[in-house]
Each structure stands twice: as C-alpha cells, then as structure tokens.
Specification:
The chain is an all-alpha fold. Helix content is about 55%, strand content about 0%. The radius of gyration is 17 Å and the shape is globular. It comes from Durusdinium trenchii.
C-alpha cells in the first residue's frame, strides 16, 4: 500500500505522488543557489553545475577531471583527489570508459557493473564513477550523493555512509525501483536528484546530524531487493 503524499516532507522516498516528486525536482535550482551562496565563489559552483547538467557526456580524461571538479565543489571537498585522478593516462581513461559503456549497452544492463568498471581508475570510487555515467544513462546509473543516500533511507547519518560498491548497488536499486514506481519517464538519476534537493532544502547537511530521512520507504523497498 502506497503512503503517497500524506507523509509530506517527512519522507519523500515513501511517497508515490508524482506531483510531489516533480515539485521536489523543480526545486533543484533553488537548492543549488542556496548552497552556492555559502561558497567563497558562488559563481564557480553555478557554472560547473550548468556545465554538468547541459554538456553531452564524453569518454576522455578532460571530462573525468571536470566532473570530479563539479563533484568536489557541489559536495564534500577531498584534498588530493583531483591530483590523484590526474595521474591516469588518456589511454587508460578511454579504455575504462569503453568497458563501462559496453556493459551499459546490454539490454538487461546492470548499472552497478558499469560503475565498477570505472573504479579501476586512480581517484575514482563508486560515487565519482556514478557521476561520470549518470548523465548518459540515467535510467541505469544514478549519481550517489550523500544527500540522496540519506533521502533513500539507507543510512541515518552522513557520517555513517559507506562509499563502496555494495552501498552503491543498494542505492542504485532503490532509486531505479522508485523511478519505475513513479512511471511517466522518471529515471533513477532524477529520483536521486529530487532526493538531493529535498534533503538540501530541509537543511539536512551536517555529517553529525542524527536526523532520519526516508527510513520507512527504504525498509519497504528493500524487501524486494536481494542484498549483495
């Protein structure tokens, strides 16, 4: 039985109300501007995000580095990660991208396997890999931000989030399943983006926060997902 919009802001993930989800997604620009306003250079995040949302995905080192810069600017900055990614050769980056896209080309493609193919690159974990693929195949790969993970109910606090393939696989299954439930051409990445927006606008940003977001929905969806 669907809880729908009766939950309001308590748990977007528990809702099957398409209008509620669309409203959350439409708030992305506002959430991004609020985040940018707290940065030393607000225009940098806004420009990077516009580039990320509108640029056709590529399969080269330049795209890898620019996406990583977007990720580090919009999310948690991790010193040395960009420099580590720069150590990858152009040939190796293109080889890993091709391997990932080959996996995604299959009719029953598992987005998590494609994400894993990119993690062999230096400085690229499941989160960065999902950012590199979500724009090209949002119906297979969703970007795993801390906020979207919290919104999905997988973890209670940002400090508890694990950035491994097991966590990514569970997260991607949850948001892709929610997209199928919503229908109307929703993708898993749109679900993840709506969750990011919803959580940001609620003010759930601190790694030390003990606020639970979306837990009831995640428990319900997990019943149909085998743990890996």
């Amino acid at each position: 039985m669907c809880i729908c919009s009766l939950l309001g802001t308590m748990s977007l993930m528990a809702s099957c109300d398409g209008q509620l989800w669309s409203k959350a997604l439409q708030g992305y620009g506002s959430a991004l501007r609020q985040l940018a306003s707290r940065k030393q250079d607000p225009s940098k995040l806004e420009a990077l995000d516009e580039w990320f949302q509108k640029t056709e995905p590529k399969k080269d080192k330049a795209y890898l580095l620019k996406v990583l810069e977007w990720k580090l600017t919009r999310g948690t900055f991790r010193p040395g990660l960009l420099q580590k990614a720069q150590l990858n050769s152009e040939e190796e980056v293109k080889r890993c991208f091709q391997a990932a896209y080959d996996l995604l080309a299959a009719p029953d493609a598992d987005g998590s396997k494609a994400v894993k193919a990119l993690t062999s690159l230096q400085g690229v974990g499941p989160v960065t890999a999902s950012a590199l693929l979500c724009r090209a195949t949002p119906q297979r790969v969703a970007y795993m931000s801390d906020e979207a993970v919290l919104g999905s109910g997988l973890f209670k606090r940002a400090a508890d989030i694990k950035y491994d393939m097991k966590t990514y696989t569970r997260f991607n299954q949850l948001v892709q399943a929610k997209a199928l439930e919503l229908g109307n051409r929703w993708t898993g990445d749109q679900v993840a983006k709506a969750l990011w927006t919803h959580v940001k606008l609620q003010g759930v940003q601190s790694p030390a926060s003990s606020k639970v977001v979306g837990k009831p929905a995640a428990q319900a969806v997990r019943k149909s997902i085998k743990k890996k």
